[in-house]
Amino acid sequence: MEILAFGVQADEKPLIEKAFAGNHEVRCLDVFLNADTAAIAAGHEVISTSVNAQLDARVLETLAAGGTAMIAQRSTGFNNIDLDVAGRLGLTVARVSYYSPYSVAEFAWTLAMAVNRRIVRASMRTRDFDFRLDGLMGRDMRGRTVGVIGTGKIGEAFARIAHGYGTQLLGWDLTPNPACVELGMKYVDKDELLAAADLVSLHVPLLPATKHLIGASELRAMKDDAILVNSSRGGLIDSDALVDELRKGRFAGVGLDVYEAEAGLFYLDRSMEAVDDDTLARLVTFPNVLVTSHQAYYTADAVTQIVETTARNIDDYLAGRRSENVLVPAAPPTR
């Protein structure tokens, strides 16, 4: 069987080919799955998608009409998939429920330190042989208060890094994580965390209940010199409200690895085009904002786990097995 994989990055391709070697042929495409590309999947029973695929009703109906029966998404998040429509069409959908939490946690801390110590500005200056220190002053993190919103596996890994720097830990989640409590984390309500934290890092999934979890009122509640980091999902932050606060000169730094309207932008080269997203265009102009292209997960360790789990999900589907990774119950294979 030939598996069709959409949205494959160049670094990712050899890892995917290795994971499927000896079991299935795999054809890797660098285009993302959306309404314009869904017809390419015709004749493929199983496809694999990336986190920036657009799997709305229109796309899912095109896939089902073309003979696709199983979608294996190479990510933990699945807010880009209309699961109700997939179920109605009889499509099996699986995700990667777990991979290295350290990849994202380490990157989130890297973003925080990069904006804190003005690394990007310093690097740009030294390329021009400008070695002044004006405007590059940061702060020690030791003794600061770090607020972790979402203390699952990634949030816990982030908290461990912050603890190693000698920070005070505040947490917000539906259920306290005992491992974080052992680190000395104090669980408080969200408003208290936002008001007290020098650094706030987001590690919750994007769900209807968490859409714009950090909106205008939450941003106003934060310290003027706080650092805000989002390496989870762009929709957790109201981007327009964030721009409004940045215009007022607030925040020591903002590190964003995700953006709520990133589909159609991230993972693509748009350097020769006019980008019509005014909010993103404004965000990248602020000197205290660092935007990266949803790469926090992108380590050899994590991607290897992701593609190997994806291959197992497909094998489980073909064998009629169901695992914790199945989002929409498996339908019997068509063979």
Provide an overview of this structure:
Helices cover 34% and strands 15% of the residues. The chain is of the alpha/beta class. The chain folds into 2 domains: 2-99 and 301-328, 3-Layer(aba) Sandwich (Rossmann fold); 101-291, NAD(P)-binding Rossmann-like Domain (Rossmann fold, 3-Layer(aba) Sandwich), CATH 3.40.50. It has a 7-stranded parallel β-sheet, with helices on both faces. The chain has a 6-stranded mixed β-sheet with strand order 2-1-3-4-5-13. Helix 9 links the parallel strand 9 (199-202) and strand 10 (227-230). Helix 1 runs parallel beside helix 12 (300-319) and helix 4 (101-116) packs across helix 6.
What is the strand and helix layout of this fold?
Layout: E1 2-5, H1 13-20, E2 25-28, E3 46-49, H2 57-65, E4 70-73, H3 83-89, E5 92-94, H4 101-116, H5 119-127, E6 145-149, H6 153-164, E7 168-172, H7 178-182, E8 186-187, H8 190-196, E9 199-202, H9 216-221, E10 227-230, H10 239-247, E11 253-256, H11 278-283, E12 289-291, H12 300-319, E13 326-328
Parallel strand pairs: 1-2, 1-3, 3-4, 4-5, 6-7, 6-9, 7-8, 9-10, 10-11, 11-12
Antiparallel strand pairs: 5-13
Helix pairs in contact: 1-12, 4-6
Mean pLDDT: 95
Please state how the strands of the largest beta sheet are arranged side by side: 8-7-6-9-10-11-12
Largest sheet: 7 strands, parallel
Structural class by sheet pairing and helices: alpha/beta
**What is the number of helical segments per DSSP (H or I, 4+ residues)?**
12
Q: How many distinct beta strands? A: 13
Ranges where pLDDT stays below 50 over 5 or more residues in a row are none
Ends distance: 11 Å
Residues in helices, as a percent range? 25-40%
Q: What percent strand?
A: 5-15%
The CATH superfamily label of the largest domain reads: NAD(P)-binding Rossmann-like Domain
Give the second-level CATH assignment, the architecture of the largest domain.
Answer: 3-Layer(aba) Sandwich
Number of domains: 2
- Using the alpha-carbon principal axes, give the shape: globular
CATH class of the largest domain: Alpha Beta
Output the radius of gyration: 21 Å
At CATH level 3, the topology of the largest domain is: Rossmann fold
